Amino acid sequence: MNQVVMVPVPLSQEAADMLRDDPAKLSLAGQMLTRLLHSPAGEADPLVALLAGLKREPGVPDLTDAEIEAEIAAYRAADRP
Q1: Within 10 A of 75 (CB to CB), how many other CB atoms are there?
Q2: How many CA atoms lie within 13 A of 29 on its CB side?
Q3: DSSP readout, the chain?
Q4: What pTM, to 2 d.p., does this model score?
Q5: Which one in 22, 30, 33, 46 has a CA-CA gap of 20 to 30 Å to 12?
Q6: How many domains does the chain have?
Q7: Would residue 23 be called left, alpha or beta, if left means φ above 0 and alpha means ψ between -120 and 50 degrees?
Q8: Cα gap 78→81, rounded to integer Å
Q9: Would you say residue 1 lies in a domain?
Q10: Domain contains 59
Q11: Domain of 49, in residue numbers
């Protein structure tokens, strides 16, 4: 059951370009997604657990969805070389 198949995944153009230009990075991303999505019977979905834990790191103040969206918008708008 180790057959590798290609599936479309929605990504930013920048991320898609980086994966398209680097086969090793594409392979690693696929391996990471496979491990992340594989959930042994009886365990919580690891993707859900990971996302839920992002806002609960010790010492990090809780952020609202609006604050997170504002940070993402600012990052995308910033001039980068």
Answers
A1: 9
A2: 15
A3: ------------HHHHHHHHH-HHHHHHHHHHHHHHH---TTSPPHHHHHHHHHTT-TTPPP--HHHHHHHHHHHHHS---
A4: 0.47
A5: 46
A6: 1
A7: alpha
A8: 10
A9: no
A10: yes
A11: 13-77
Query: For residue 34, what pLDDT is reported?
Result: 80
Residue 29, pLDDT score:
87
CA-CA-CA-CA torsion sign (48, 51, 52, 58):
positive
Give the DSSP letter string of 47-65. HHHHHHHHTT-TTPPP--H
What pLDDT, on a 0 to 100 scale, did the predictor assign at position 33? 81
Q: Do the domain assignments include residue 46? A: yes
Region for residue 47 given its phi and psi (left: phi exceeds 0; alpha: psi -120 to 50; beta: otherwise): alpha
